[in-house]
Amino acid sequence: MELGTGSGECGRLRLGSRVSAPSADLVEQSRLVLTAHPLQRIGAYALAALADRNRPEDLAPEDFNDAVEQMDRHAIQAALLRDSKAATGFWLKSSLSLFPNSPMNHNSNGRRSDDAIRERIRTWHALADPATWPGVGCVLCGRPAVDFFGNRDVVLAESVSYRNTTPRGHAGMALCRPCHVSFYALPYGSQLTGGSSIAVHSWDERFLKRAVTRQVDRSLRLAETGDPSRRQTDVREVVALTSMRRYGERITDGVDLLVYNNFNGKPSLEAHSLEQPLAEWLRMTSRDPELRRGFTALLRAHATKIDPGVVALARNAFRDPARILARSVRYLGRLVTGTAPDRERVAALAALLYSFATEVMLMNEKDLSEIRSTAGRIARLLSEEASGGKLRKFRADLKDSPKLRSWLTSRGVQWAVKPPKGSEGPLVTERAFTLLFAPGADNPAWFHRDLLLVGVLEELSRLGWQAKEGTDEEGGDEELDALDQKFITDEAEDDQ
Ligand SMILES: [Zn+2]
């Protein structure tokens, strides 16, 4: 993802074509447009929410000015405290990692009168006299820029090497007023921690609007009260997961998680993304009642002594989605081989994992059904023994594909010679062999083998099979973590 680097190159290219600023240009300087910069887009939607308008483009000049006035009011209220450690100083504290050295938190504020601080903050985002405009285009939207801006106003960092860099002798990033003001509104569309800020972005406009509007409602409480006890404490990935699961419509594009810090000493910007199918699956599984039961099991599957399930799941989703299945399969194994298997939970989690296969891995239904019926026949073989030894061996062989292949071949021969009563066809069909073992980028065989195990465990559970000696694995099925319980309860309440 390309974020602004503050190079101001577009601006430089247009040097020489001075802007005359007729009155139409002045109106243009209060008209929001959406640009290609994710943080500007989040800010623009935050402005729309502050002005109670549907989309950024809907803001009339008076709506735009009203939103700026609200933000100035919050900034002034915070700045007049002059102490970010004050009991109501959270908005001021946050400003240090958003707009360092700005009129909101400038060192000199301690010596300035209240009126002087007010005046400086009001001027900060007011429309500058066109005579002072630099005569170049805004790097984000191409309209006349009103000034060059550095990290006092814009999260500039793309990476450490780009940190706050602007060409030598250049004052910063050329921006028009609406784009500049969008960055002023960015904190309202972000979850603020007092240090790094967390924002969710997508090119799905409806989703972005919903996610930002929701966030603005929460940030406004902080802006108005400055009360740090009202700040949200969700882990960054969970912020994004929650925004997806609370969204009522289909997510039509990928979702980005942006974590930024504009603090003078340590600016940073991190971006993590997940693809549209996974985003939509994470959302959709909060809608269907059966998948929702499976989701609760999915949280249990991810919980560790250190992390609640929702945290580990959200991290896997953004960093390594394949681990979602791996964690779930291990947990299914524990459930099925435990002393008192919860068969409903096994069925619910298996159904959820099949939906992961078709919705996220885009596996076709016919191939999935081939794997499931193969798994059903293998489960029948394994269920003949109550000790669980065969199941243990089968699971070990799954990690070693030549061993698994040879086991399936030899059992397949016995099956063909003496087919179990009521069975039809071979133990493993040719198609199933291809899915489980064929190399090639278009055939994720490892994934199909994991699915095979899901199917075997599901069928053993359905057959009422129980290992005589109980679980053979560390960690049984503990109580749901308090944070996971809260996540699920909040979702249920949200739906009412
Ligand atoms: Zn612009």
How do the helices and strands line up, and which of them pair or pack?
Layout: H1 9-13, H2 23-28, H3 38-50, H4 61-79, H5 90-96, H6 114-124, E1 147-149, E2 173-175, H7 177-185, E3 197-202, H8 205-225, H9 236-245, E4 255-261, E5 268-274, H10 276-284, H11 289-302, H12 309-319, H13 322-337, H14 343-359, H15 365-382, H16 389-398, H17 401-417, H18 430-437, H19 445-462, H20 482-494
Antiparallel strand pairs: 1-2, 3-4, 4-5
Helix pairs in contact: 3-7, 3-8, 4-6, 9-12, 11-12, 11-13, 11-14, 13-14, 13-19, 14-19, 15-18, 15-19, 18-19
Bound molecules: zinc ion.
Notes on the protein architecture:
There is one protein chain. The protein has 496 residues and is mainly α. It has two domains: 9-273, no CATH class; 285-490, no CATH class. The chain has 20 helices and five strands. The strands form two sheets. A three-stranded antiparallel sheet has the order 3-4-5, sandwiched between helices. Strands 1-2 form a two-stranded antiparallel sheet. Helix 9 (236-245) crosses helix 12, helix 11 (289-302) crosses helix 12 (309-319) and helix 14 runs antiparallel to helix 19 (445-462). Residues 138, 140-141, 143, 175-176, 178-179 line the site of zinc ion.
What class do helices, strands and sheet pairing give? mainly alpha
* Approximate strand percentage: 5-15%
Whole-number total of structural domains: 2
Helix proportion of residues, in percent?
40-55%
Radius of gyration: 28 Å
Report how far apart the termini are.
37 Å
The tally of helices reads 20
- Write the element-wise H/E pattern from the N-terminal end onward: HHHHHHEEHEHHEEHHHHHHHHHHH
Shape label: elongated
Number of strands: 5
